[in-house]
Amino acid sequence: MDKAIQKIDHLMWDAEAPNSLPTIAGILVFEHPLNKQNLINVVSKRLFRYERFKKKVILKDGKPMWHEDEKFDLQTHFHHIHLPDNGGYTELQECVSQLISQPLNHNKPLWDVHLIDNYKNGSAVLWRLHHAIGDGMSLVKVVYSLTGNSAKDSLTISGRNRKSKTRKSTGKKEHLAESEKSVFDDAMQLLSNPALLRDTIETNWQTVMEIGELFFGKPVTNTIYKGQLGAAKKAAWTKPLSLVKIKTIAKYYKVKMNDVLVALVAGAIRAHLRLHRQKLGKGMKVVVPINIRKKDDLSDVDNEFSWISLDLPVHIKDFEKRLKFIRKKTAVLKPSAETLFLHEMLHIVADYIPQPVKQMFLEFMGNHIAGVITNMPGPEHPIYFAGEKVEDLTFWVPHTVPLGIGISLMSYDGKVYMGIVTDEGLVNDPDTIVNAFADELNQVEKVILPIG
């Protein structure tokens, strides 16, 4: 039976434009070549516990509906690419950039897989999934469900399930603008307690001000990250960086790891802006997605997120001062009724506003921010996919509003990765930012090591 696309899923479907594709892309890198048939077998046996991967979108009376694809052909979702010779980063970057610039085929379910051979004597697998299927948190779970804790486990038919015995995390994962407590539960508690709600709004007035600035502030202009967008996007990513280094810096300054990561991002963006002789008199407005679902509620794929705005302190040269600025700002980005309000507002925009007006809303949002920064926690131990160990993994944020730059942070097996996607017509040198991020980390480490 056809089912209407609702709430934020609906918004993500309507967000698509030729120059702004709401496609989440993620890549897994392998030291050895990956067997294509193993890849297809694992996906065919494990992926379709999530029904949306066999459904396409059709329109009924102008409304998008999830519809079972009667002509579903798994083979059409797989693509095999061979890089020239033993391709390196540059060749893979060109390949990924071309793929993320292309829309998914709307005549079939909204995902595909690209097996890329000849990458450093091994392989890479690029996933592309439409944001209408789900958000980053749920889609990371999907990919993780296709993996195993050993080569043998990764080839079994059953794979991971909700009751499987996998290694449990021993440490608390940190997410941007998130706490260990469920955002949903915390917000509902506030809404049911007027006195507590009043106190929260009073103590979090800065959050209210941030929301007001996002909607009623001046549009972002005079930056290389804003302008007329084109269809061509360019992807870049860091080499694996040490999570231990991030933890050491966080411990030294007595802050959260994510405060350190955001400070490093701000430093990298600052270096890029200086290279292009941009003015640095104030911070750069970005948005940070927030996971709104109940704690550990990842049983299915969908979109359950809100967001908050943040001034990225690109105007502050000193790392420690930049870190203090971020710590103060992120302290107010905690679970609140405002977060739930914004989440519900997105539902209203998605389901009750005509599509042309919805596009105007998304463009309005895009005009008031320069970029997006998101963070996804990956597995804390090695994982295996289709018989091979995953050496590295990273992802790139979708463009759900017209933006010139999107930054993603991901951790995996003691490593940290930063991915970046830019509009090639506005920013054709994202590797400058990638390299600056790594340089910032090394410089900060040199400052604290003699003392720490």
List the defining traits of the structure above.
single chain, 452 residues, alpha+beta, Chloramphenicol Acetyltransferase, 2 domains, 7-stranded mixed beta sheet, 6-stranded mixed beta sheet, globular
Outline the structure in words.
The longest helix has 19 residues. The protein folds into two domains: 153 residues, Chloramphenicol acetyltransferase-like domain (Chloramphenicol Acetyltransferase, 2-Layer Sandwich); 235 residues, Chloramphenicol Acetyltransferase, CATH 3.30.559. It is built from 13 helices and 16 strands. The strands form three sheets. Strands 8, 9, 10, 11, 12, 15 and 16 form a seven-stranded mixed sheet that branches. The protein is an alpha+beta fold and 452 residues long. About 7% of the residues have low confidence. The protein is globular and about 60 Å long.
At the first level of CATH, what is the class of the largest domain? Alpha Beta
DSSP helical segment count = 13
Give the helix level as a range of percent. 25-40%
Number of domains: 2
User: Which series of helices and strands comes N to C?
Assistant: EHEHEEEHEEHHHHEEHHEEHHHEEEEEH
Distance between the termini: 62 Å
What would you say the CATH architecture of the largest domain is? 2-Layer Sandwich
Radius of gyration: 21 Å
* Average residue-wise pLDDT: 83
Question: Major beta sheet, specifics?
Answer: 7 strands, mixed
CATH topology name of the largest domain, in short, is Chloramphenicol Acetyltransferase
Number of strands: 16
Unreliable spans:
161-173, 175-184, 200-208
**Spatial shape:** globular
**Percent of residues in β-strands:** 15-25%
What structural category do the secondary elements indicate?
alpha+beta
